[in-house]
């Protein structure tokens, strides 16, 4: 009599464990393929493209991928360093947390002269010794602000892998994760520079006319993102910058004798950081290489009574107004209205519709903690 072979029964525990192994294996393969896809995309698909009507030469850089340079303009330290530390950490494979590949980005900080970022002054190793050694004292409303910006760009372009340059304040917060922001910036062949004509404010001085024609005078947000060729132009400019240095002064107190002399000399408190880069790029015929908008969201409020000069100030985000619904509202913005030019700027990157803003300001520590606790900076969703 032939004896049939018997199969050993498989325990319930063994079946569950086998199923889990299959799930782990599938997720590992999926994650690996996704990472390979993202690396391929950043190397091949995200190379700077030519812009219609312009000639932006392809840039060569060492390494596998172009970098985004994050340029922080700070008063002293970085109070939101814990949030940026979270931002620079990304999850590649699902089962462990990996740090953002520093081949993709670099960090530069303009701070108070002599201030050093180390274990005692920052909670994030991404900022260790990233301060400029040639920083200057910056006075709001004077040319020293744009001089500090130029110092940041000058240091950053020394690394030829840096292909995009983003200027940020010490109160800026990212609205998306690193991967989404990286792809957004690298895939566009244009700079993002808020730039428009404004005839309501008397900031232009006729003393500039020999260097800067009045029809080329532009205004816009200080917070820019520029491609490498534009960063090099800003750093190497000596003509337009000199005009701002000479004729843009901080106005003395209104009604004083110094103020009377100031205006008699046709000087202007022209707020260089809101005009210099916009005017320089316009004078250089590069408006078709720009998306004329900023990537940093700011809400402005006006102060002053009818007897006082009115001034505009950015609204501060606190814990109360930085929740998921508030952030989602910013992310859903897809156009910007420019009343002075009677135009609406629909937000695109490389001719594709995109959310208008990648960053926002001004955030308090409490608001930044809200972002981190709600994992709002870890979402890559567009809306």
UniProtKB/TrEMBL annotation:
Please tell me where this protein is predominantly located. membrane
Record's subcellular location: Membrane
Q: What is this protein called?
A: Core-2/I-branching beta-1,6-N-acetylglucosaminyltransferase family protein
The record's annotation in PANTHER family points to: CORE-2/I-BRANCHING BETA-1,6-N-ACETYLGLUCOSAMINYLTRANSFERASE FAMILY PROTEIN-RELATED (PTHR31042), GLYCOSYL TRANSFERASE CAP10 DOMAIN-CONTAINING PROTEIN (PTHR31042:SF94)
What does UniProt give as GO cellular component?
membrane
For molecular function, the Gene Ontology terms on record are:
glycosyltransferase activity
Protein's membrane topology = Single-pass type II membrane protein
């Amino acid at each position: 009599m032939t004896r049939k072979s018997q199969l050993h029964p498989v325990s319930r525990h063994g079946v569950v464990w086998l199923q889990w192994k299959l799930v782990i294996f599938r997720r590992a393969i999926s994650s690996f393929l996704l990472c390979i896809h993202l690396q391929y995309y950043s190397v091949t698909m995200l190379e700077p493209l030519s812009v219609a009507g312009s000639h932006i030469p392809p840039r060569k850089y060492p390494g596998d991928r172009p970098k985004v340079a994050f340029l922080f303009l700070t008063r002293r330290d970085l109070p939101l360093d814990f949030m940026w530390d979270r931002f620079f950490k990304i999850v590649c494979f699902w089962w462990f947390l990996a740090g953002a590949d520093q081949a993709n980005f670099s960090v530069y900080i303009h701070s108070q002269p002599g201030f050093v970022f180390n274990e005692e002054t920052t909670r994030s190793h991404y900022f260790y010794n990233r301060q400029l050694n040639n920083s200057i004292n910056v006075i709001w409303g004077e040319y020293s602000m744009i001089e500090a910006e130029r110092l940041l760009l000058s240091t950053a372009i020394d690394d030829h892998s840096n292909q995009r340059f983003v200027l940020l304040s010490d109160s800026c917060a990212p609205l998306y994760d690193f991967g989404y922001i990286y792809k957004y910036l690298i895939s566009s062949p244009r700079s993002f520079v808020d730039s428009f004509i404004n005839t309501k404010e008397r900031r232009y001085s006729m003393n500039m006319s020999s260097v800067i024609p009045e029809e080329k005078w532009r205004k816009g947000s200080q917070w820019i993102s520029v491609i490498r060729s534009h960063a090099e132009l800003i750093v190497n400019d000596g003509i337009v910058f000199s005009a701002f240095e000479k004729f843009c002064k901080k106005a003395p107190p209104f009604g004083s004798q110094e103020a009377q002399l100031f205006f008699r000399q046709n000087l202007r408190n022209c707020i260089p950081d809101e005009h210099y880069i916009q005017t320089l790029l316009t004078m250089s015929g590069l408006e078709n290489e720009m998306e004329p908008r900023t990537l940093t969201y700011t809400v402005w409020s006006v102060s002053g009574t009818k007897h006082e000069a009115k001034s505009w100030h950015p609204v501060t985000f606190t814990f109360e107004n930085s929740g998921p619904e508030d952030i989602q509202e910013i992310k859903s913005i897809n156009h910007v209205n420019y009343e002075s030019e009677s135009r609406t700027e629909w937000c695109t990157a490389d001719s594709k519709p995109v959310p208008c803003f990648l960053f926002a300001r001004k955030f308090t520590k409490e608001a930044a903690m809200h972002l981190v606790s709600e994992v709002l900076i870890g979402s890559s969703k567009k809306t």
